[in-house]
Write a structure and sequence with these properties.
With 348 residues, this protein is mostly helical. It has two domains: 215 residues, no CATH class; 120 residues. It is built from 16 helices and no strands.
């Protein structure tokens, strides 16, 4: 436990400032976007979803990385997560429901990982276009920070996860009348690999960027695919990550009329049971990876970061939060308390 606590202190003391520096740079760039709608959505995503980049940057603590590699990795993670959050806002909040517009926007997620293809016109099918080069600069920054020496098997898996993420974002934002059937058709073949899960829990797992960040850390360290263990991250770690995200946002999503997969569960008891199942299965799988303590810290950090959000302790969320904290154990509860303090101090 002591070594994990040292890692958490190092994370807050050394990695958070790197994240903040990167985010400030992107905030400045976002403020210069000519189109008002694009500018508003870029700034809103940076303001509301800062902790996504902070949480993702935990992979800068992956054992064996030197200071320069950590800085490059943080730069990649912040830029890539900023793309994700910005595009999510463009799909959610601008009154657009066209799949071709969403698919074109999300080419940025793939091209950010692919140094050898020309950059697309991401706004070609979107009603707003003039971003002053903001999105292309984010994509190019990802390429520069990731570098061109990522082993092919790692890059292939990263691009596969990015493609799944992009498809989810495309289908989940089309009109509600078409959405459920489109999602079901899309996920059916993939879901057959995990009969113990609801098909939409596989959909949820496609919505996480953590596997991409983990593989980026492996690439920085020069680790080959044989040691990667992608089956731990998909669907388990990624599914747990995004179920937590949907759980804390379910009331807000209901008010906005946004899709929230957690509402598919029968009741709050089942929500707690499935979150605990994903936590347990994630833990079982990451114990088989290199540096299992690091990966268990990622899981405990997810619990702490998400459940320390005030929304997690409000109303009917409270019993579910307590059940997950009980499952996660003493260290997760300790850093949960630390995270609540960091939130009060507006550090996260």
């Amino acid at each position: 436990m002591f070594s994990k606590l040292v890692s958490i202190c190092k994370f807050v003391r050394t990695v958070f400032p790197l994240v903040d520096r990167e985010l400030e740079g992107w905030k400045k760039r976002a403020g210069e976007i000519p189109d008002r709608e694009l500018r508003d959505q870029a700034l809103a995503s940076l303001a509301a979803k800062r902790f996504h980049a902070q949480g993702g940057a935990v992979y800068a603590l992956y054992p064996g990385l030197n200071a320069a590699q950590r800085r490059e990795l943080v730069g990649f993670i912040v830029a890539y997560q900023t793309i994700s959050d910005y595009l999510d806002n463009l799909c959610d909040r601008a009154g657009v429901e066209e799949a071709r517009a969403f698919r074109q926007l999300h080419l940025a997620m793939d091209e950010a990982l692919h140094p050898d293809v020309p950059l697309s016109d991401y706004y070609a099918n979107y009603p707003h276009h003039s971003d002053g080069g903001y999105l292309k600069t984010l994509v190019q920054t990802c390429r520069d920070r990731l570098g061109d020496s990522v082993p092919s098997p790692l890059l292939s898996q990263m691009r596969h996860w990015a493609a799944l993420y992009s498809e989810l974002q495309t289908y989940k934002h089309i009109s509600p009348a078409e959405r459920e059937q489109a999602l079901s058709r899309w996920i059916a073949s993939l879901a057959r690999n995990w009969p113990e899960l609801y098909p939409w829990e596989i959909e949820v797992a496609t919505g996480s960027t953590l596997g991409i960040f983990y593989f980026a850390a492996l690439a920085k360290k020069g680790v080959g695919a044989a040691q990667a263990g992608e089956e731990a991250y998909f669907p388990w770690v990624q599914g747990f990550h995004i179920l937590l995200d949907y759980f804390i946002d379910r009331q807000e999503d209901s008010e906005h009329g946004d899709l929230n997969f957690v509402r598919n569960y029968t009741d709050d008891s089942e929500i707690g049971q499935r979150l605990c199942l994903f936590y347990q299965k994630s833990g079982d799988h990451v114990r088989l990876l290199a540096y299992p303590r690091f990966h268990s810290l990622v899981l405990e950090g997810l619990v702490a970061m998400y459940l320390s959000d005030p929304k997690a302790s409000q109303g009917k969320n409270r019993p579910v939060t307590f059940s997950v904290l009980a499952q996660a154990g003493g260290f997760a509860r300790l850093i949960f308390a630390m995270s609540r303090l960091l939130r009060r101090k507006r550090i996260i």
